Amino acid sequence: MRVAGARPAMRHVPRKRFGQNFLVDEAAIAAIVDAIAPQPRDRVVEIGPGLGALTRPLSGRLEHLHAIELDRDIIARLRAELPATRVTLHEGDALRFDFSALGPRLRVVGNLPYNISTPLLFHLAQHAAAILDIHVMLQKEVVERMVAAPSTSEYGRLSVMLQYRFDMEKLLDVPSAAFRPVPRVESAVLRMTPIVRLPHPARDETAFGRIVAAAFSQRRKTLRNALRAHFKGADLEKLGVDPGLRAQDLRIEDFVRLADEILTR
Question: Which is it for strands 106-111 and 87-91: parallel, antiparallel or unpaired?
Answer without folding.
Answer: unpaired
